Amino acid sequence: MRVITEKECCFQTIKGSRFLGYAMYACDEKQAKMILESIKREHPKANHYCFAWRFADGRERSCDDGEPKGSAGSPILKRLLSKECVNTMIVVVRYFGGTKLGIGGLIRAYGGVAQALMEKITCEEYRIWVHVGFSYAYADSRIVSHVLAHIDHKMVKQEYGSLVQQEVLVIEGEEDRLQQALFDESRGRITSSLLVP
């Protein structure tokens, strides 16, 4: 599975109708609906807002938004599936130009805009990140820096008090290696635990 790394846009005119395509990251249905509403506000006079989204948990949805059934949302979703994109949403906005395209023409138009977006987007391998938290004495700061330098991670937070409290994200499957390395390098002084985000 892959995930989009940044928003992409494209524009096509087909028999007088203008099609504006947007591809962007969306981690869940709530975020996807917010994106859709934002695009609707940006294009209040458009005739159709057809879309598809697909999430890492297997949920997916497509919408024809008033176009004939299966002529818009389905071709968009097929492009997401072909690129194996998850946590990704495509919206294609249509301004009707006066000429009816027919179902075949609509499938080609919406699918074509989605395909143009798929050719432009940059993706990376989808990874699940888990939260790991731990605390340590200031004297062990070098040990922690050394261990983290050898494990792909993202810093979430670091707080300083009598001990340093740290929370990081690591790729699922690497949490055991991080825990063991911290424990071993500190001779048992540093222990960690998985946190619920």
Q: What would you note in describing this structure?
A:
The protein is an alpha+beta fold. The protein has 2 domains: 2-125, Impact, N-terminal domain (Ribosomal Protein S5, domain 2, 2-Layer Sandwich), CATH 3.30.230.30; 129-195, Alpha-Beta Plaits, CATH 3.30.70.240. It has helices at residues 29-42, 73-82, 102-120, 141-149, 175-185; strands spanning 2-4, 8-14, 17-25, 48-54, 60-63, 85-86, 88-95, 123-125, 129-136, 153-160, 164-171, 192-195. A 5-stranded antiparallel sheet has the order 2-3-7-4-5, sandwiched between helices. A 4-stranded antiparallel sheet has the order 10-11-9-12, covered by helices on one side. A 3-stranded mixed sheet has the order 6-1-8. It is elongated and about 75 Å long.
